[in-house]
Amino acid sequence: MEVQQLDDYFGYTEKGSSFEGEIRAGVTTFLTMAYILLVNPAMLTVAIGDGTEAGNATAFADVLFATAVAAFIGCVVMGLWANLPFALAPGMGLNAYFVFGVVIGMGVPWQLALFAVFVEGLLFLAMSIPQIPGIGSWRSQMINSIPTDLKIATGAGIGMFLAIIGLREMGWIQDDGATLVNLGPTESWGGVIGEAGVTTVTDGSFALWEHGAVISMVALISIAVMMARGWKGAMIYGIGLATVWGWAVGAYDPYNDFLAGGAGWGSATAELPDQWIGLPDMPEETLGAAFGSDGLGAAGDNMADFLLVMIAFLFVDIFDTSGTLYSVGRQAGYVDENDVLHNSDEAFASDAAATIVGAVLGTSTTTTYIESAAGVEEGGKTGLTAVVVGVLMLSGLLFTDLFAAVPQFAMASALVIIGALMMRQAADIDWSDSEMALPAFLTIVLMPFTYSIADGIAFGVISYCAIKIGMQKWDQLNPVMWALFVLMMMFYVGPGDHSTFGWIFNELL
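The structure assignment produced for this chain is given below.
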């Protein structure tokens, strides 16, 4: 397609941009969010990998394939159909909930969790098509029914959740039998085996500059400095700095040292990849796993957990996508005087389509990225920007082995930065409202304290409704909030050792 044909299709000249400007904006957005090609496979491998080096390598490659393809499809559909400069990829926070909240926390098989993502994507797609009678209008009704401060608190809480995960993977915090969490063993960093009174790492002797915790903290501060200076792609540069440093010295990776309390799924030292460029393979374990015996086939025996997980995915996806689309859309000039986003139905449908494809291939919920604002700031005005991001995301498949060799501590520094950025939303909460302060606070703090996004959302809603009932202001609770209140209470309260959901399904089955 020639440049003039591209202009005729996207209309970037009419919108005040140019071909070169759209390409530059796409590259800028890609640089700000390319970390997802590293972080998402690393995170989901914790749940999908079998703990062996070969098994985890396969899981990493599978999730990288799913991440790149889901991002490509989401960006291309967003660009060609909605003609908006918004990029999509598997969402941070949602992938953490998938791994630590659902698979590890609840013991739900990862295949069933993928099926929940698939069903959530279908429901989101149905809600994004207003032509479907009785369904297409649900999305707007649900969004408008949840108090704004609770929606803001959800984003801030996810930021705290990502931060605690990132700090643990960096080696800066660890579990503690007396205080639950504690600072990592800083006094032993750089210790040498055999020295009296020095606790050493289990995988040999490392100098201070060879310890992943130290390297990752330098990377974290470097990213913050580069972002403060306005550098595009600061997170990729920071991750790259930590990675090259780690490879050069064979750095110790505390998160992967099983004997020292780490996850232990990879190598406890940073190692160069066997090859830098290679052709991608189709997923071996994750492709279609959502529909196997441990996915769709296990839904009936785990219906209560399945429903909670699916609803939580849907809830967060709707509000995360809505907030991102409207905030970036307003920056790009695509929100009208009635606060309505241009081509919003197509934008939401693009998001849902990418989620469905990602679940089939093997990754958690795909959503619109707030990093799209970087491309908009660079001058991106049309869907050509999104298409450029999608193509660049797909090119990541050529570097599977390279990405797999990036140390965990290097990628974890990005999680803390993202957490800090997401926490900025908390300033918009009306903390002077005594009926909202506690629900918003519980929503935020229970996510990291319970290691569950779903629990934070649930108790934020429960406490909000309970306070309104206690204030005899039940008329301020709309039908959606009443329904959420009842459903969430049914999940947490029930006879014996069952939730009400579990008791009902046990009786029925």
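Interim note for the steering committee: The beta strands are 88-90, 173-176, 180-183, 366-368. The chain is about 60% helix and 5% strand.
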